[in-house]
User: Which sequence fits this backbone?
């Protein structure tokens, strides 16, 4: 996608030895982006050089991994971008303990492809395998198993952080415990991860036991999922946001469980990367062309029909009972439809936002029902809605609550953008009144002040104090940080 260059200050005097370029850097949802100088350090020394150069030039830096955050979390229209994907070596892997020591640019894909044959799988993965571990830790990502194992931060043993002053801090739950709990989920504001030590999960098969459970409405979806949290390893529900009245929130839950030792007759075959790959065609269409077919349906009428069809197919799937699916197939289904986001349009100003609200269990049903109903009343209906269950974690700015999240994909066009933002602001007020939170990896619509309603004042003050200590020149800034936190530190 192309867009007009902005007048962002450039990092013209790039530090010696650090590879750079001048590029259009956008959020994954394509609805925001800016031209920026991009620095590509290959190691800690070059990272330090990038920070030192920025200090000399008075340039603000945004850290960036794979750019999989939907909004403006790794976009910087007032400075430069530091892309850490060049630091992508797996430094150590111990197949006896399942502990991996990685550079920050190692991706979830690299990790699972390295460890699977030894009978291990990342404990927490997102719905896409392309994020870097640094981006995953900075956002404290969750998977479809959050209710059972928490966020990726819960699987991090230790990390090194290079602060903007060039200091290298090794952090774990005892050493620099404040930085450990603030930098995980700290959206790249305190320093750059330079090394991450991660625990992974022992698996006895490359497959999961999976079943679909069709539900006629939101209340049933929540009841069914709650009833299964004891036995399930993964739970996720797709919901039909177009269904109205009593059918609001009808959909299909997927429950998945690991296989017990011995349950897979051929683990040496299923624990291969080749076994994880999905077929080259989807419903007879080559995968690479599926986005074009989806594009034809990318309007309210098409999506209403597609959601209704998916609901009916879910009812049939339920009748199949348990079936087996590869880990990658279950976790990363969307990755197997290359460039599906292009179905939302490829011209400037077109794209999608994902609006993901996290709501405590006590208020969740009422709040989420209102979110669906008010979207329908406004005539701004999300094309995709996904429900998951969460548990709290100890990270300072975590999005997770003992409750639920509803992730909604809304189409953005230049003509609908203002109305969509106003709609999201109204939803945000409802969610915050219900004690809810939002997730910076997905956000593009939070207003200044919303964060003060999400987190306790004491917590925000502690984070701001740590920011002033580790980044006294306020070098680390992103569009997200300016939009949501401007003036807070
Ligand atoms: C299709 C799709 C599905 C997704 N599903 C999920 C899901 O199920 N669960 C979930 O939790 N998320 C999900 N995400 C969001 C994604 O996991 C997060 O946005 C993740 O942070 C992306 O990592 P990244 O490497 O692309 O980082 P980026 O998006 O480039 O950056 C993310 C943050 O990390 C910071 N950062 C980058 N590098 C460093 C560094 N070296 N040190 C410190 N901070 C750094 C950036 O400044 C930014 O704040 C999904 C995204 C997509 C596109």
Assistant:
């Amino acid at each position: 996608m192309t867009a007009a260059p902005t007048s962002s200050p450039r990092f013209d005097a790039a530090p010696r030895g650090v590879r750079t370029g001048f590029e259009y850097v956008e959020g994954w949802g394509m609805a925001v982006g800016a031209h920026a100088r991009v620095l590509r350090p290959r190691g800690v020394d070059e990272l330090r050089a990038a920070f030192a150069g920025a200090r000399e030039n008075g340039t603000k830096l945004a850290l960036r991994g794979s750019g999989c955050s939907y909004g403006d979390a790794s976009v910087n229209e007032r400075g430069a971008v530091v892309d850490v994907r060049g630091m992508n070596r797996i430094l150590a892997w111990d197949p006896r303990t399942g502990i991996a020591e990685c550079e920050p640019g190692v991706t979830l894909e690299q990790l699972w492809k390295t460890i699977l044959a030894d009978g291990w799988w990342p404990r927490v993965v997102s719905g896409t395998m392309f994020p870097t571990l640094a981006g995953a830790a900075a956002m404290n990502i969750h998977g479809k198993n959050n209710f059972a194992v928490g966020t990726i931060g819960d699987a991090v043993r230790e990390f090194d952080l290079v602060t903007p002053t060039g200091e290298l801090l090794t952090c774990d739950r005892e050493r620099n415990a404040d930085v450990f709990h603030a930098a995980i989920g700290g959206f790249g504001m305190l320093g750059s991860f330079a090394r991450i030590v991660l625990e992974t999960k022992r698996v006895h098969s490359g497959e999961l036991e999976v079943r679909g459970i069709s539900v006629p409405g939101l209340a049933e979806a929540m009841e069914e999922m709650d009833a299964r949290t004891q036995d399930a390893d993964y739970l996720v529900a797709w919901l039909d946001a177009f269904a109205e009245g009593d059918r609001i929130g009808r959909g299909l839950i997927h429950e998945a469980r690991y296989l017990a030792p011995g349950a897979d007759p051929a683990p040496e075959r299923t624990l291969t990367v080749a076994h994880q790959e999905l077929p080259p065609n989807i419903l007879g269409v080559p995968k690479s062309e599926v986005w074009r077919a989806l594009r034809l349906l990318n309007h309210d009428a098409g999506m209403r029909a597609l959601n209704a069809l998916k609901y009916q197919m879910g009812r049939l799937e339920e009748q199949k009972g348990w079936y087996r699916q590869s880990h990658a197939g279950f976790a990363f289904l969307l990755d197997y439809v290359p460039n599906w986001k292009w179905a939302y349009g490829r011209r400037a100003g077109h794209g999608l936002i994902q609006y993901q609200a996290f709501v405590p269990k006590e208020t969740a049903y009422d709040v989420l029902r209102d979110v669906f109903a008010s979207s329908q009343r406004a005539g701004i209906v999300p094309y995709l809605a996904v429900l998951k269950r969460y548990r709290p974690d100890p990270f300072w700015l975590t999005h997770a609550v003992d409750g639920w999240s509803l992730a909604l994909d809304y189409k953005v066009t230049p003509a609908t953008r203002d109305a969509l933002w106003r709609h999201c602001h109204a939803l945000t007020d409802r969610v915050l009144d219900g004690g809810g939170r939002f997730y910076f990896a997905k956000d593009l619509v939070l207003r200044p002040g919303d964060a003060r309603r999400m987190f306790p004042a004491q917590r925000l003050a502690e984070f701001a104090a740590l920011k002033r200590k580790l980044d006294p020149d306020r070098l680390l800034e992103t569009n997200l940080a300016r939009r949501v936190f401007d003036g807070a530190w």
